[in-house]
Write a structure and sequence with these properties.
- The protein contains 14 helices and ten strands.
- It is an alpha/beta fold and 359 residues long.
- Helix 1 crosses helix 7, helix 6 (175-184) crosses helix 8 (234-245) and helix 9 (256-266) packs antiparallel against helix 10 (269-276).
Length: 359
């Protein structure tokens, strides 16, 4: 194979995570020479992927064995915000992994003559740029982006930053999965009153966007926001998820402040915040300048995601998970929410009947 036709050798960090695993699999099937870097050697082996253990990611990580013979790096490793951890612990983890670890990788990549670094960031960086009360995760991604641009400013290493919204896809355990389980159990979802707009990203579309950024000349030293190309509201997402599951959906109205209170009481505040945020941005630069289009439509993506979950098994196991304090609190929150909604509906119907009688 000639040098011109040879596919690039790509290092994917965070190869054991949700994103990294899918990136490794996709690029290997597309003919790239793929090396996956993770903390320890995995018990599994994705076909066509060479795995290397690098230990913890921080400012002391030894990238030598991982970068040997590599042309391009896709930096997917990182830690996301965990509300169950004490504040100080996740702030330290964000700084150590997302900022200092990224800095050590960038320096090592320059030392090894790597051609390009594709850094997976977050659309939440915009909140940090505007001072709009960003989360610790968003702040760390903002700091990492700033550090990278300064580091490679006068270097041969090309930087591509991809800013991502909430991700979903096969095998991911997240707020969307929690919603699917509630739909399957015929739980009424108090989301009908949510008036928001969200851009989401299916992992299958993400890996396609990453491939487009690996070698395209116009991607060098650019920042792109990536999405599925559609904007949906939370109620619409619930309806389309139910359609993908071929299951009935019961959406109830609930004032947003009350919804937040009930979610916090039930221990699912993080999931509800993720599903009710306003996240809309311009994603047309990558479409216009790289000619990339998301190859998978949202409904198809939801169907693929649902198929990967054994929801019937989850439903069968649900009664076994109900005991315990959190289970009882969750049941109580749902019962309280249903009572409030019934009360609101009753008053509204009574008022409507009274107005009809007066006319």
């Amino acid at each position: 194979m000639s040098e011109e036709s040879r596919k690039a050798a790509v290092l994917v960090t965070g190869a054991g995570g949700f994103v990294g695993h899918h990136v490794c699999r996709f690029l290997a099937r597309r003919g790239f020479a793929v090396r996956g870097a993770l903390r320890a050697r995995p018990s599994y082996a994705e076909e066509g992927v060479d795995y290397v253990a690098i230990g913890d990611i921080d400012d002391h990580t030894d990238w030598q064995s991982a970068l040997q013979g590599i042309d391009i790096v896709v930096h997917a490793a990182g830690t996301t915000e965990d509300f169950t951890e004490p504040l100080g612990r996740w702030l330290v983890a964000h700084n150590q992994i997302n900022v200092a670890g990224t800095a050590s990788l960038a320096q090592a990549a320059m030392d090894h003559g790597i051609k390009r670094l594709v850094f997976l960031s977050s659309v939440g960086v915009r909140a940090a740029e505007r001072g709009e009360d960003p989360t610790g995760f968003e702040t760390s991604k903002h700091e990492a982006e700033q550090m990278l641009r300064k580091t490679v400013a006068d270097a041969a290493l090309e930087l591509v930053v991809l800013r991502l919204p909430a991700l979903y896809g096969p095998e991911k355990q997240d707020a969307l999965r929690a919603m699917a389980e509630a739909i399957l159990r015929d739980r009424p979802l108090p989301l009908a009153s949510v008036q928001n707009q969200m851009s989401l990203l299916f992992v299958g579309n993400l890996v396609s966007a990453i491939e487009a950024c690996l070698e395209h000349p116009a991607a060098a030293d650019r920042t792109f926001s990536v999405s599925d190309g559609e904007v949906v509201s939370t109620p619409e997402l619930a309806e389309r998820l139910a359609d993908a599951m071929q299951h009935d959906l019961d959406l109830w109205p609930c004032p947003t402040p009350l919804l937040g209170l009930l979610a916090g009481f039930a221990g699912c505040g993080k999931e509800v915040r993720a599903l009710t945020r306003e996240v809309v941005f311009d994603d047309q630069e990558i479409v216009r300048d790289l000619g990339w289009q998301p190859p998978i439509e949202v409904d198809t993506a939801l169907q693929a995601t649902v198929r990967s979950w054994d929801l019937e098994q989850a439903a069968r196991e649900a009664p076994a998970r109900r005991p315990g304090l959190r289970g009882r609190l969750t049941d109580t929150a749902f019962d309280l929410g249903q009572w409030v909604v019934r009360m609101i509906r009753g008053r509204r119907d009574a008022r409507g009947a009274g107005e009809a009688h007066s006319t």
